[in-house]
Design goal:
mainly beta, Maltoporin, Chain A, 22-stranded antiparallel β-barrel, 6-stranded mixed β-sheet, globular
Length: about 775
């Protein structure tokens, strides 16, 4: 049965692709006709020049499964675009993206929240899938995803697409939705390129170079960049323990500090070649490498209920992390006209992760011998993705999409540890040495159909998935295999009141799968006071998501209002278990259910001719139900908890002169509810200035965390434990830099005649 479902999925997708493509070939006039937006009068077929490459402003690389292009007629503040099932935000005018990372760029995107450690959430929900050009990437998976977002330069991203209720075209993974990073791929005719370099406070610096050659049939492109960021984090932790009667038994104060450089390099090479007027092949290879070399210091002081010092612990050590990501992809795309496309692509990526944690620890009260420990992990994560996608225009301005996707994750996690009273006499420690293998094969097929009925448009879809999961804890001899077959329906409805106003309703079923590390049953020591252990019986989280959105747009102003409701089962939660005096084991468990319901408001426009604004807010209600979850030794689990929270962001952009522009922005991440407490809100501010010396040279000055108050506060509040943990990093930074472009300017085409007011969004496949 395991393989039968996969074979059936493959056969279904192949039949859909070949059958639909062969039986529904349109006439030349049909294939070249430009479709009108839903509800608008149909345009007469117009002759096109399929042999020419799309203009640089709208070109999409062949084989890249990006979200559908939405071309906005008229002015578009901050590059905002929308369609029936997604919203897109340009980052080209964001000064933070000039000197910062992808993580910095995401902080100014509505619906998106980024904490001080780089972890991303959508509307307060952390189960987010990050795609690159519509495809999964090994770079943004697992425990290093936040690190990758904080290392890659933001100026490699053209726009960010926020898909909170995706259609069946996309994988259902990620309960909160999808963030799709659309990378820059447009190039000027002839030879062109750019150079950027920024110098920051505390020894920070970053830079990059890109170049491209574009002829009639061939495009070659490449880019490379680096980042050096010395870091210094101080993390205090105050903890109080109580017995079953509520009496205080112990308090501790711990400070963990980390200091050292973070270095990152990235490079990419790509080529597109037009075999004919309709066929294009593309190849690309990329490599990313990051290195962290930190020194760590830990001080812990413990006190009895009367306040007398009874525990003194000190530790010095090192924390080294290395990550290498190498990948390549190839694709073929055949285009016969608008919404008439067949593409096949294959990609393979490998992540090599190296981590080392070594320390010398001394407990002077009560007096014990010194302890030396060194833990090294060598992880290999591979991702293979093969897919085929078909787009077809259908009668009555309908659109059909179908496809098949094979995804294979094959990972190996190897940990080796040594321990002793000192480094010279340390030997292998079998309690911390283990090998864990993880393999997941997903066969999936999808079908979506979009059909307008006057001012009303319907988009329905269904994705079928067969998932085979094989876990092998080699050290313990534990093998755990599962197989699941599921269907994920989606439905999107749009009603157009006028060219300026529209209403959308949507539903989707989503899934969030556990991280591989959360499934490893081997107990691993983080430090002498903290252990973690995975749970191979952890179930995927299932989510039913509903949304209703209203959009009003006129001229260069738009307003968005979205009400949403998500109900999930089997949510993941971290549970702390006391396994010794002031020693805790963190394990993963499933909750019974959770509910998130909220209202998101977005406004964008001009206060004056040269002063524009972008404001958004998200107010939501969260409820968590443990369903009577009982974990022996847990430091407390509430039966249910709820909270009403809110956050938001603002941005002001002032074009002072034709060559000078200023930007000020701020964001407040909402308070997050956890099964054992909450995470406090945090606030981040930003200032930026850009001066154009010429059309090809610009200088930039930016300052982030202007007020110096961006940090993380995590509270645990249970009958047995009160804990306040902080993460205070050196986030405040100032940069001075420049960006220089060279090469021939892009070919200019006469602008289209201005549309009648109010302006309308024109949707192109």
């Amino acid at each position: 049965m395991r393989h039968r479902a996969g074979i059936w999925l493959a056969a279904t997708a192949a039949a859909a692709a070949t059958g639909a493509y062969a039986q529904t070939q349109p006439s030349a006039a049909q294939s070249q006709a430009t479709q009108a937006p839903p509800g608008a009068p149909a345009k007469a077929p117009a002759k096109a020049a399929p042999g020419k490459k799309p203009p640089a402003a709208t070109a999409k690389p062949p084989g890249s499964k990006t979200v559908d292009e939405v071309v906005v007629t008229g002015a578009s503040q901050n590059g905002f675009r929308s369609s029936i099932d997604r919203r897109s935000y340009g980052v080209a005018n964001d000064l933070a993206a000039t000197t910062g990372t992808i993580s910095d760029a995401l902080k100014n995107i509505p619906s998106v929240e980024v904490d001080v450690q780089g972890n991303v959430s959508l509307r307060g929900h952390p189960n987010v899938t990050i795609l690159v050009d519509g495809k999964p990437s090994a770079l943004f998976r697992g425990q290093s995803a936040a690190q990758a977002l904080q290392s890659l330069p933001a100026d490699s991203v053209e726009r960010v697409e926020v898909i909170t209720n995706p259609s069946a075209e996309f994988s259902p993974e990620g309960g909160a939705g999808i963030i799709n990073l659309v990378m820059k791929k447009t190039h000027r005719a002839g030879t062109s390129g750019s150079v950027r370099y920024n110098v920051g406070t505390a020894g920070r610096r970053n830079g990059g170079v890109s170049g491209a050659y574009n002829s009639n049939d061939l495009t070659l492109s490449g880019d490379a960049g680096f980042r050096h960021d010395p870091q210094h984090n101080i993390n205090p932790d105050d903890r109080s323990l109580f017995d079953v009667t509520g009496a205080l038994t112990q308090t501790t104060h711990q400070v963990f500090s980390l200091r050292g450089p973070f270095d990152q390099w990235n490079t990419r090479l790509g080529a597109d070649y037009d075999l004919s007027k309709t066929d294009r092949i593309s190849v690309e290879a990329h490599a990313n490498q990051s290195e962290q070399d930190f020194s760590t210091i830990t001080h812990l002081r413990g006190f009895d209920p009367g306040g007398t010092l009874n525990e003194v612990f000190d530790q010095t050590g090192v924390l080294r992390r290395g990550r290498e990501n190498d990948g390549a992809q190839a694709s073929w795309r055949r285009v016969h006209g608008v919404d008439d496309e067949l593409s096949v692509s294959a990609s393979h990526e490998t992540n090599y992760e190296r981590n080392e944690t070594g320390f010398d620890a001394t407990t002077s009260l009560p007096t014990t011998t010194e302890n030396f420990q060194d833990i090294r992990s060598h992880n290999i994560l591979t991702l293979t993705d093969i897919r085929s996608d078909l787009k077809r225009p259908m009668p009555g301005d309908g659109r059909l999409k179908a496809g098949y996707d094979l995804r294979i994750d094959d990972n190996s996690y190897d940990n080796v540890a040594t321990r002793g009273t000192m480094e010279a006499s340390a030997g292998p420690d079998p309690t911390l040495t283990n090998l864990f293998r993880y393999k997941q094969i997903i066969n999936s097929a999808y079908l979506t159909y979009e059909q307008p009925f006057g001012d009303f448009t319907l988009l329905g879809g269904l994705r079928l998935e067969d998932v085979q999961l094989d876990l092998d804890q080699v050290t313990n001899g534990v093998i755990h295999d599962t197989n699941a077959f599921n269907a994920y329906p989606t439905l999107h409805l749009n009603y157009k009141f006028s060219d300026a106003q529209s209403l959308t309703l949507s539903y989707s079923r989503r899934i969030s799968r556990p991280n591989p590390a959360d499934l490893n049953p081997f107990r691993v020591e983080n430090d002498p006071f903290s252990f973690r252990q995975g749970n191979p019986d952890l179930k995927p989280q299932q989510t039913d998501a509903f949304e209703a959105g209203y959009q009003y747009r006129t001229g260069g102003t738009f307003y968005l209002a979205t009400a949403y409701y998500r109900r999930s089962s089997h949510d993941f939660t971290n549970v702390g278990i006391e396994i010794g005096p002031n020693v805790f084991l963190n394990i993963q468990e499933n909750l019974a259910s959770s509910v998130h319901a909220g209202l998101e408001l977005v406004a964008n426009g001009h206060l004056t001719k040269n002063l524009s604004y972008n404001v958004s807010t998200n107010v939501y209600y969260a409820e968590i139900d443990t369903g009577g979850l009982v974990v022996p030794g847990a430091v407390g689990l509430a039966g249910s908890s709820s909270a009403l929270e809110g956050g938001g962001r603002f941005s002001l952009n002032w074009q002072a002169t034709s060559t000078d522009s200023f930007q000020a922005s701020g964001q407040m991440n909402a308070r997050q509810l956890t099964p054992q407490g909450h995470v406090d809100p945090n606030f981040l501010t930003f200032l930026g200035y850009r001066h154009k010396f010429s059309d090809k040279l610009a200088g930039v000055v930016t300052v982030q965390d202007v007020l110096g108050n961006y940090h993380l506060n995590l509270f645990t509040e249970t009958p047995q434990l009160r804990d306040h943990a902080m993460a205070v990093g050196r986030v405040r930074a100032a940069y001075v830099g420049f960006a220089w472009t060279f090469g021939a300017p892009p070919k200019r085409t006469p602008p289209p005649p201005p549309p009648p007011e109010p302006e309308a969004d024109t949707v192109h496949g």
